[in-house]
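User: I'm writing a tutorial on reading structure tokens. Could you give me a worked example: one chain, its sequence, then its tokens, then a sentence or two explaining what the tokens reveal?
Assistant: Sure. Here is the example chain.
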Amino acid sequence: MRQLISFLLLLLIISCKSSAKKESKTITITSDDVKASVAYLASDELKGRDTGSEGIEKAANYLEEQLKSFGVKPYFETYRDDFLVGDTKAFNVVGIIEGNDEKLKNEVVIIGAHYDHIGKSKTVEGDSIANGANDNAAGTSAVLAIAKYFSAKKNNKRSMMFVLFSAEEKGLLGSKHLAKKLKEQDIDLYTMVNFEMIGVPFKDRDYVAFATGYDLSNMALKINEYLGHNFMGSSEIAKKYNLFRQSDNYAFYKEFELPSHTISSCDLSNYDYYHHVDDEAEKLDYEHMASLINSVIPAIEKMSNTDTKEIVMYEE
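And here are its predicted structure tokens:
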């Protein structure tokens, strides 16, 4: 009997160690993960994902299926947040992972990117489909990857909202609609992190990505602090073209007056195919994309778990 008890205790210890290993298992986003998302979203089948098109309907269906497969719940009754662009029906795709802290779960971190594109552009060698791989299937793939990570880890104290915006190319209409709606709901927004054009690396910078509106808050500095290295920087080209106002972060900054920035590794100086038919999936660097996403996740993890709201606007 004593031998049997010892054997059972040994099995229990091995089982506990095995469970601990599973719980602490590192979740890594691979280049194949992001490539699969971009390849579909930027395929000719979706015809450039113009708002109101059959292609963007297919894109939204794909995004909903992905979020559902990860276990990310719809924020509204369904994943879709409907609005109109003139007489055209449009929809953001919105999911939520509730925080695991009784108090902090009432605070929200938004992770976003736009999934629409312009549909068609100037014909080049018989091709008129503006596939929008870097702009912005790339950013969309980052949001999906981060959602997959947090749904598996379930270690976020704050609630994480994952938003794929439509009608960005029509004047940031999807983000304007949702920011206003969430403001009217009086959600306790902490910060908004947007991903845009992360498909190619910089060759001549001492940082991996830049933050639009770098000087408005301490987000970029906090990300570097959380990561322990110079991941985020400031782009003079982004300042010149005022890219802070040109993406979906801006609506949340306007409505909530809180840190809301876009993370990007392309400021139009290192990619020649902006709104071009050659913005194709094969032009992107998926090892770079996976590395960028894996690098930034620990910082987002930190954002979701600090006892206080450490990311703040600078006083004017």
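What the tokens reveal: The chain has one domain: 28-303. The longest strand covers residues 88-97.
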